[in-house]
Fold each of these.
Amino acid sequence: MAVPEEILGLDLTVAILVVALVVVVLLACWGVRSAFPKEDDMFRRFPSCGRAHLPGLKETVATPFHNYSSDTLLIHGWADAAAVKSRLPAGFHPVTNAKTGKAICTFWVVNYRKTTVGPYKELVVVYVVADEPGVTITCGSVHCVNVINTRPGVRQYIDKLWLDEALPIEYGRQLRGAFEATPDGFVFDAARGYRVRAPAAARRALDGPDS
């Protein structure tokens, strides 16, 4: 049976429109994808091409520091406000929960798999602090830490930062800040669900002296 020419013409028009639409969608997807930074684009723009000498270890290392692969666990919780205040320098005040009076604190547990100074592990004790005393929040969940992004004059204060390898410790001391070696009792077991046994010094930072 013969097919009318107008139907053939309509089918051809529809086919052309469908193909054109598919091409437009594919081009749009390609454009959006190409606009996003590549996985290592930051490292191309800021290459680790400098060199610095670490006299303590008699080693030369690359700068700036690059972290290519790591796992991070953030443990948010509440600490005794007086104990936190005792660990802060002048001008910093703990942000507290309006109902409980507890201060906001966080443990950062990081397993650096590949960096410019090799693999290492890190434990950080962090408090949420304010420029002025008496700053409180009513939040009662782990999202309370987001106050650093919503309240002017509120920020995070790193009390302790422990590492478990000599090279990144020396690198940090000379080029990035005063990092400390992990004290006795620090355990980081990534094979058992990132289990961390904090040393006494870290526990005192949260619970207060002699507790």
Amino acid sequence: MQRDTENETGKSINEMEREARGNIFQDDHFIFTEFNGLKLQQLVVCENPKTKETIMVFIKVENNNWHQFFLDVGFGFWQDWNETEIDDDDEEYNYIDKTIEFDIYNKTISKIYCEPHENNCQIIIELESNEKLILRTTEPKIFDSLSELIKLGNK
């Protein structure tokens, strides 16, 4: 097991070595393989409190900083800003931890991908437990409609 050692700034050396990559994907088709075989530690949804729309999803996986993904203008976006914590100070949105509600803590990711879904696309996280987390539009026939995060399979 790799250990992070801290320097005088309090940041781990391993943390400092990672650079923010920004947009990793911005497309209607992609496969993100970096998390295959890793355990999901936390999943937080940024939600519009008025419409209940999922604006963005933050994912924390073992030995990695936070990544985020969302849908916009018919595309799926996957980003890595090398963030060690979520900036949830924006009072305009609700930040809801879905890890316990979806019962996904420490479940192993088998595949993450984005695929077309009618006039939009959807991002799917498949777990080895035969469960799926799907970020999709609520009305796939309507271009760029509101987004929602659902879980399929098991309880």
Amino acid sequence: MDALPARVEAEPPSARLLNISLDIGTGPPLILVHGIASSHVVFQVVIPELAASNRVIAVDLLGFGLSPAPIDATYTVEEHVAYLHRTIRSLRLRRPAIIVGHSMGCLIASRYARRHPSAVAGLVLVSPPIYLPAEIVGDPVEREAMVVYRRFYDFVRDRRKFTIRNAEIVARLLPVKDAMNISDRNWRAFVLSLEHTIETQTAVTDIAETRCAIHVIYGTLDPFLIPGSLTIVSRMCHVSAHKVRWADHLIRRRTAAVLLSSVKDLQSSPAPSRVSRLGSAFRVLTGRTFGTDPSR
């Protein structure tokens, strides 16, 4: 189910693992999964406090940072998860880990938790770009927002030089250095992850069918926020949703405080005894998932 496409040439084992960009501290394991065209630096404001009582491990996603960028990679969420799973397994952790995802990393973390429930102690999803197919969104404003996002993504993909040049300008304006990095080196990983992981997603179903407790954190000023999607997720019995006023897509001080509190809550609370079945009920009623799940 998680198999990668066949390769023409044999590869060294290291080529099938993600780069570990950070591994500090001791204690319960926490794994940080960054978003598209980013790196572990988006978590820098929380890393020192997390590492005071936890083993904090950050990875570079497939195609980004120092991780492999195979020429035959398609950058689907399944492929991202397969690499993440092999990398976590190679660490030989003695207990399940809490996974903290940011942006696209939330989508990967959710699918990972659904695929490998015994390896996950809980999820913290920060600024998740959760989208539904426009045709099933009832609110006309949110339906149009879905359409606009997809048009914007098409525009970005079709204008490589324009996108790279403007990403460099935006990156210089961000308060966190290297929080955004779109370049010729990671262009293919960027556009295919955008298309195959963000646009073609099943995040709502993945979250609904995940067994562990989940904390979802989002800012009121996040430009990638779709309130209707988050409303569906927040109604699931194993999800705790936290709205951070005046916060945007990045992890700044206000969001960081909620993230730290969420991790502590997961570590002190027992696992949920039941899991929301909203995703399953949706399939029963409509015959489809929230998106296109390649495994079904």
